[in-house]
Amino acid sequence: AGVPFDGVLGFSQGAEMVHTLALLKHQGDPRFRLNTFPRFVVSFSGAINPGHFESVSGGGPPRDCGLESYASGPTGEVIVPCLFVGDFVSDGWYSSQRFSQTKNLYADRIVVEHSQSHKVASLCHIQDMQSICKFRRFFSRFVRQR
After folding, report:
1. Beta bridge partners of 113
2. In this structure, what DSSP letter does residue 3 have?
3. What is the pLDDT of residues 57-91, one digit of tens each?
4. Of 7, 60, 113, 122, which sits most exposed with the smallest number of CB within 10 A?
5. Which long-range contacts (CB under 8 A, 24 or more apart) does 59-68 make?
6. What is the SS3 assignment for 18-68?
7. What is the per-residue pLDDT for 69?
8. Which residues fall within 8 angstroms of residue 144, CB to CB, at 6 or more apart?
9. Each residue's pLDDT tens digit, 26-36
10. Which range scores top for mean pLDDT: 63-67, 113-117, 125-129, 142-146?
């Protein structure tokens, strides 16, 4: 029957969870079998939180989780389509490096930048037509015909 939704969207810490879900799916977590995972994820002003993969004892990420070296990570291996939207230069919460590391995890990603700091910018603040077309191109892939 599939899942009752098409995608998962998160802002800031919610986006951290979006990336955690995508990595767990990538790692083969049994909670996210093929037919029980959303078809796409959307990240507004958020990046992966390596703390989600650290052991309680402080010993670092569990072995074989794909984050043995967070700086390098499983570059381009996560196949869940992801739309990244954010101010990747002056977010004020996440560093440019952390955004870059997170974006590089995904094989199928579309990136839309804005200059509104750490917020979900309205489309009136994303005024270039190329960025608006990126939104349309991403979501049009998941429109279901009736």
Report:
1. 86
2. -
3. 555 455 555 444 444 456 678 889 999 999 989 88
4. 122
5. 64/27, 65/23, 65/27, 66/23, 66/26, 66/27, 67/23
6. HHHHHHHHHCCCHHHCHHHCCCEEEEECCCCCHHHHCCCCCCCCCCCCCCC
7. 47
8. 6
9. 888 888 776 77
10. 113-117
Vertex 56, ends 54 and 58: CA angle to 5°?
A: 65
| CB-based contacts of 127, cutoff 8 Å, min separation 6 | none
Entry pTM: 0.80
> Which residues, 6+ apart, have CB-to-CB distance to 122 below 8 Å?
none
**Amino acid letter, 38:** P
Token pair 């043995």 is found at: 68
